[in-house]
Amino acid sequence: MSEQSHVVVVGAGAFGTALATVVAETGESRVTLLARRAETVAAIVASCRNEAVLPGITLSASLEATLDRAVLEDASVVLFAMPSQAQREAARELAGHLPDGAAVVICAKGMEKASGRLLTDVLEEELPRRHVAVLSGPGFAADIARGLPTAMVIAASTLERAADLAHVLSGPTFRLYPSVDRIGVQLGGALKNVLAIACGIVEGAGLGDSARAALISRGLAEMSRFVAAHGGDAATVTGLSGLGDLVLTGTSHQSRNLRFGIALGRQGNAEGWAGELVEGAFAAGVASKIAAERNISMPITDAVAAIIDGRLALATAIGQLMSRPITQEF
Length: 330
Ligand SMILES: NC(=O)C1=CN([C@@H]2O[C@H](COP(=O)(O)OP(=O)(O)OC[C@H]3O[C@@H](n4cnc5c(N)ncnc54)[C@H](OP(=O)(O)O)[C@@H]3O)[C@@H](O)[C@H]2O)C=CC1
Ligand SMILES: O=C(CO)COP(=O)(O)O
Known about the structure:
Layout: E1 6-10, H1 14-26, E2 30-34, H2 38-47, E3 64-66, E4 77-80, H3 87-94, E5 103-106, H4 119-126, E6 131-136, H5 141-146, E7 150-155, H6 159-169, E8 174-179, H7 182-204, H8 209-229, H9 240-251, H10 256-267, H11 279-294, H12 299-308, H13 314-322
Parallel strand pairs: 1-2, 1-4, 2-3, 4-5, 5-6, 7-8
Antiparallel strand pairs: 6-7
Helix pairs in contact: 3-4, 7-8, 7-9, 7-10, 7-11, 7-12, 8-9, 11-12
The structure holds NADPH dihydro-nicotinamide-adenine-dinucleotide phosphate and 1,3-dihydroxyacetonephosphate.
The site of 1,3-dihydroxyacetonephosphate (13P) has 12 residues, from α9 and α10.
């Protein structure tokens, strides 16, 4: 990919806007944010702001914004920054505008709830002849957009493609590590959200920091088993997309998944939670169902899914987790 890459970011939410501004700031590529709301485009063009999702942050002056899907037609890299459950719909809507050979990068952290399928499978089905990649790892949109140092992973079908994408998208404050493990990288992002909810439950219920540390370690073991069962590399989840992101979102109150879990831990249910995207609330049920079907041991994920569904009381969940048969850690 050359210096003239045209990067289009689809989805003008918090993450899409943050990625668009940090890539635009490198000055190496033309960057366009494809939004759905006229007021978003007007605000970015007039004042370099997207206050609804990144309050108080000034975006790159070179960032372009538009509502016109035709902008995709000369794109070499397209970032899909809408939520997991919207990725298929977006692919269908935009397929006619996406050039053959373009890289389409999944920036969501989840799995498709309706089918239980990986997002790479979903996009490859909807977008043949495009190269589907995955961007994941620890990085809050506001941190990225402010230019705070952030490191994430980009996984593609070959190391050459991943390295090309890493070079196009990285800059002085945003560093991408190339990977060929698209399965491990996307599942690390999807499953850490479930475990961040679990960390929130622990915090909200006042179970202590020791419980949180145990949960992070044993949660990582669950992630490794799930990734390996899907043909990914279990070691991937010990890196940025997995442990790195779990440490971030399992401990920082910037995380929506953590805050949702805190509400669950405090009041025992999710009543009153409105509006904010909580990807782990979708992923918990999907992962738990697949784990049961494929005989993958995921006791923490199962408990989170059951608590969210109102099938299990917190006290019972803790009792069940603590009274599991004593086994070796590894
Ligand atoms: N926020 C963060 O810090 C991070 C988020 N992520 C991941 O990024 C993904 C998006 O999260 P985030 O940006 O925070 O969410 P937001 O709720 O802030 O934004 C979601 C955006 O997606 C847009 N959208 C929804 N459906 C479509 C569609 N079919 N076509 C085009 N755009 C669509 C929405 O547009 P509209 O406003 O018009 O409804 C909205 O602007 C999630 O999977 C999340 O896990 C990953 C790392 C960090
Ligand atoms: O994934 C994230 C940062 O890496 C964002 O986490 P939340 O979706 O929990 O806010």
